[in-house]
Amino acid sequence: MKIVVLDGGCYSFHSQNRNRIVRINLPNYNCESKTSSMNHGSAVTKIIDNYVQESTIISVQVFDDNQTIRARNLASSIKKSINEFHPDIINISMGTRSDRDGELKQAVNYAVDQKVILVCAADNSGAISYPAFYRNTISVVCNHRVKRIKSFNVVYNNWIDILAYSGHFSVEINKNQDWLIGSSFSTPVITAIISSIWSEKLVRQGNFIVKIKKIMSQMQHSNGSFNLKYHNIANDLLTSKDRAIFLPLNKEIFTIMNNSDFVVPHIISIYDYHTSSKIGKTTADIGYTSYVPKQVIQDMRGIDWESKDFNSVVLGHVKEISLLLKKDLLSEIIEKCNKYKKKFMHWI
């Protein structure tokens, strides 16, 4: 098993599981700075080392202290690492907010052609990030309902594939003990789990990413605290012929609307909860450069579910609002959609 970690580089350390650790800390490997703290990359590499055995883990420095990289450089790093190291899996615990030229998409497709699995961290906030957004990757986001490190839940009909551990990781980095949290550090655990089910026969099959998800759904370590009604939602496929209302007005909804390549349904209305200060304002009024700047934000209590003006609902995160309103808003909206025959897409 050979795993490449595209990250911030790695400090030298001794493997606890007889893994071979290879460090490629070269500034000219698409890294735009000659300096890197290497803390992030070291943590990701050590987490993988904790959960795999007798493998080769190649840590490649591709970003600097700011933990940023351009889409073009990341795409180039993916291709270069495949050609140079011939890995089975590439862990990418970072991403970019755009892929305007489609170079990351090309790199993802190249990885699939070469039978390489890309395991990518999604943005902690739920915003679209690349390459995790592309369907030929395994995209991972930490979720507060996953309480154990090796627990996870497989998601279908969403660009997010895996809900992973959201707690703290205790990692020794350069002789200091750090406590870390986030999708960046949940992702290497999923990489390790995928390495345990990898086989040459598996990746030689067509659409092997789908098959990996199927295997993981059969073996998933659910900690028993999942509300299946909440997580096992079959999102409807929305098309340009659909007319949708969007709610509530949070950053997930803004992300969807501001990514015109992702927004497929026509946006009919935008709603927010009744105590929001945004009610009655337009998206332009509150300082967002939105896909629909002239839309007036309405009180979600006024949704006319019998209206023929919309046939779909796009729902963002509602946990905080549910706590505020002291009711299960997600279940309520699902019931409304079922009753009035509305299509439904939930942004997990």
Structure description:
The chain has 2 domains: 2-231, Rossmann fold (3-Layer(aba) Sandwich), CATH 3.40.50; 243-346. The chain is elongated and about 60 Å long. Helix content is 29%, strand content 20%. By secondary structure, the protein is of the alpha/beta class. The strands form 3 sheets. An 8-stranded mixed sheet has the order 2-3-1-4-5-6-8-7, sandwiched between helices. It has a 5-stranded parallel sheet with strand order 13-12-11-14-15, covered by helices on one side. The protein has a two-stranded antiparallel ribbon with strand order 9-10. Mean pLDDT is 84; it is low at 221-234.
Comma- or semicolon-separated keywords:
about 350 residues, Peptidase_S8/S53_dom_sf, alpha/beta, Peptidase_S8/S53_dom, five-stranded parallel β-sheet, 10 helices, eight-stranded mixed β-sheet, elongated, serine protease, S8/S53 family peptidase, Rossmann fold, protease
Write the layout of secondary structure elements.
Layout: E1 2-7, E2 20-24, H1 39-51, E3 56-61, H2 71-85, E4 89-92, H3 103-113, E5 117-121, E6 138-142, E7 152-154, E8 162-164, E9 169-173, E10 176-180, H4 183-197, H5 200-203, H6 208-219, H7 228-231, E11 243-247, H8 251-258, E12 266-272, E13 297-299, E14 312-315, H9 319-325, H10 329-340, E15 343-346
Parallel strand pairs: 1-3, 1-4, 2-3, 4-5, 5-6, 6-8, 11-12, 11-14, 12-13, 14-15
Antiparallel strand pairs: 7-8, 9-10
Helix pairs in contact: 1-4, 2-3
Largest sheet: 8 strands, mixed
User: Per DSSP, what share of the residues sits in E-state strands of 2 or more residues?
Assistant: 15-25%
Helices and strands, in N-to-C order?
EEHEHEHEEEEEEHHHHEHEEEHHE
Q: How many helical elements?
A: 10
The CATH topology of the largest domain: Rossmann fold
Shape: elongated
Q: Whole-number average pLDDT?
A: 84
**What's the CATH superfamily of the largest domain, by name?**
Peptidase S8/S53 domain
Please state the CA-atom Rg, rounded to the nearest Å: 21 Å
Regarding CATH, which class of the largest domain?
Answer: Alpha Beta
Q: Structural class, judged by helices and strands? A: alpha/beta
Distance between the termini: 32 Å
Q: Helix coverage percent of residues?
A: 25-40%
Residue stretches low in confidence (pLDDT < 50, at least 5 long) are: 221-234
Active site: 7 (charge relay system), 40 (charge relay system), 184 (charge relay system)
Domain Peptidase S8/S53: 3-200
Family: Belongs to the peptidase S8 family.
InterPro entries: Peptidase_S8/S53_dom (IPR000209), Peptidase_S8/S53_dom_sf (IPR036852)
